[in-house]
Amino acid sequence: MIVSDLDHTMVDHHDTENSSLLRFNALWEASYRHDSLLVFSTGRSPTLYKQLRKEKPMITPDITIMSVGTEITYGKSMVPDDGWVQILNQKWDKNIVIEEASKFPELTPQAETEQRAHKVSFYVKKDKAKQVTEALSKILEQRGLDVKIIYSGGVDLDILAQGAGKGQALAYLLKKFETEGKLPGNTLVCGDSGNDAELFSIPGVYGVMVSNAQEELLQWHAENAKDNPKILHASERCASGIIQAIGHFKLGPNLSARDVSDIVHVQNDENASPRHEIVRFCLLNEKWRRAEVENSELLISGLKAAIHPSAIFVHPSGADHNIKEYINIWEKVYGDKQGKQFRTWVDNVLATQISSDTWLVKFDKWELHGEERHGCVISSILRKDTNWFTLMHAHQTWLEQSSQNEWIF
What is each CA distance from 212 to 17, 43, 68, 162, in whole angstroms? Predict the structure, then answer.
C-alpha cells in the first residue's frame, strides 16, 4: 500500500509536462494496480481534490483521505466511511471552534469549501503561528473540546477533531484491514510538509520525504526520526522520489515504462503481463504522435504482427472496424503533436484471465492536449502467444463528452 500526499508530493506543480506523475502512473498500472492499494492523503477538501483531478493527469486511488485526515472515502464513487465519522464526533463542536477562533485577528478564514464537518481552516502568518496555536489550544480545552491544531505549508492552520489527522486516519485503516485479515505486506507513506509528519509516526511503515520537502517536515524528522532507517529523504522530487523509495527499500518493481529507452523493442520476460502490454502500447501511441520514436516500416510491421487478422474494433458509435484499418489512420497522424503538450495515460487497468492463454483487459484511456482532455473506457481481449501478446478485440466507449470526430487509438 502506498499512502501519498498530493500537492508537491505525488503532484509536482512546477513540472508543466507532469513527467514524474506520469512515470508513477505507468509503473502503478503495470505492476501494482492488481494486488496493491493506492491511497491519496491530502489536506484538500473533496471540492479542491476533484478540481486537482481535472487539472492533472491523475489515476484513481483505491482510498482517498481528505481534509487533513477528517474524511475517508472508498473507490471511484468515493463512498464515505461512516465508522470514521462516528469516531471524530467525540468531544468536537464545530460551532465552538469557529466562535473562539474568530476572536483571533491573526487568523483569516479559508474558503467555505475548506470548512468541513470536522475541520476548520485558516491562514496565518508564519511568525504568529506558534503563539496563536498555543493560546487557541488552551481556550478550546477549557471549553471542553479535544482538538488538534496543525500548521503546515508556512501558511495553513487547521483545527481538527482530536481523533483526526493523516496519521490517525492511516492507523484506523490499518486496524480495519488487520481485522478483516487483509493487512498489506508493506506500507510506504510519502509526504513533503508538516501535516504529513503523522504518517511517518505509524509503527512499521516505510516513509519517503521527497527531495523538495519543506523545512517543517525536515525539522520534525531531525527531532523525531533521524535514526530511523525506514525513512528516506529522497534525492528526487515528488512522484519520482516515491519511485526512488520503492527501489531503495526493495518493495517491488521500480522501473516505469517511461524509463525504458526503447519502448518499441521491449523484450518479453517473466514479468510480461497484459497490464504491461496495455501501458506500453499507450505510451508508444504518445511517443508516435510526439515524433519521439522513428517512423519506420519495421515498427508498423511489428504493430500489425501483434494484431490478429480478424480483430475487430467497436467504435463508441457502435460501428465495427477491422483494427488493422486503424493502423493506416495511425500512420497518418505521426508527429501531429510534436512540440505540443500531449500526454496519454491509463487508469484502473483490470486484467481477468478467461482461458489458459487469453485475458479480458478493461481500462480507462486518457489523452491530454494542453488544457483539453478526452477519455474512454476500453475493453480488450489479448492472447499470449509464445513471445508476445496478440490483440484479438477492442471495444471503446467515451468516458465524457467528446467530439464525434475525436479519435483515440
Answer: 18, 18, 20, 29
